[in-house]
């Protein structure tokens, strides 16, 4: 396990992993390198980014953190091999295409139990490998997405 002793980056809108660990949270048989952003990390700015690039990170977990109001942008540039992304039980109100741009390897996205009111039609456009999308218990007012584009069967 690697513990990172800093959370805020050189920019006020830059965050870092609270800790990085190899675990099997996502798969009972495979261990995956996971970046955890738990209760010490907060995001209340729409243009927040992740500070350091790490090609070994396969999972990103913001799970159960009410201080996460927005997802960071440009995640694919920092974690290009990301396959699992959990941001359930946070305080998200909206998600944008910029949150998922270029994530063509992402297989699982969990946005369950948030305050998301709006999802734009092109938000998940780059997620060509997506197999599981969890959107339960949201507060959607506007949902402009055509699921048949992603799940044609």
Give a brief rundown of this model.
The protein has 153 residues and is mainly beta.
Explain what the structure shows:
The protein is mainly β and 153 residues long. The protein is 3% helix and 22% strand. It is built from one helix and twelve strands. It has one helix at 75-78; strands spanning 2-3, 14-15, 19-23, 32-36, 49-50, 59-61, 84-86, 94-95, 108-110, 118-119, 132-134, 142-143. The strands form three sheets. Strands 1-3-4-6-7-9-11 form a seven-stranded mixed beta sheet, with no helix packed on it. A hairpin with an 8-residue loop joins strand 3 (19-23) and strand 4. 31% of the residues are buried. Mean pLDDT is 82; it is low at 1-10 and 145-153.
Please supply descriptive tags for the structure shown above.
153 residues; mainly beta; 7-stranded mixed β-sheet; 3-stranded parallel β-sheet; 1 helix; globular; disordered N terminus; disordered C terminus
**What general outline do the C-alpha atoms trace?**
globular
Label the structural class: mainly beta
Radius of gyration over alpha carbons? 15 Å
Number of H/I helices: 1
Poorly predicted ranges: 1-10, 145-153
Distance between the termini: 41 Å
Rounded mean pLDDT score? 82
What is the N-to-C order of secondary-structure elements (H for helix, E for strand)? EEEEEEHEEEEEE
Largest sheet: 7 strands, mixed
Percent of residues in beta strands? Answer: 15-25%
Number of strands: 12
In the sheet with the most strands, the strands line up as: 1-3-4-6-7-9-11
Helix content: under 10%
């Amino acid at each position: 396990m690697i513990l990172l002793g800093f959370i805020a980056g050189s920019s006020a809108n830059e965050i870092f992993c609270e800790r990085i660990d190899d675990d099997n949270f996502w798969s009972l048989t495979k261990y995956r390198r996971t970046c955890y952003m738990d209760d010490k990390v907060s995001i209340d700015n729409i243009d927040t980014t992740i500070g350091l690039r790490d090609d070994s990170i396969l999972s990103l977990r913001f799970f159960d953190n009410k201080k996460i109001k927005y997802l960071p942008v440009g995640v694919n540039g920092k974690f290009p091999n990301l396959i699992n992304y959990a941001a359930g039980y946070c305080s998200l109100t909206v998600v944008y295409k910029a949150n998922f741009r270029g994530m063509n390897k992402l297989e699982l996205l969990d946005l369950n139990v948030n305050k998301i009111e709006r999802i734009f039609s092109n938000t998940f456009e780059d997620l060509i490998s997506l197999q599981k999308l969890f959107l339960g218990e949201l507060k959607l007012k506007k949902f402009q997405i055509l699921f048949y584009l992603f799940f044609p069967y």
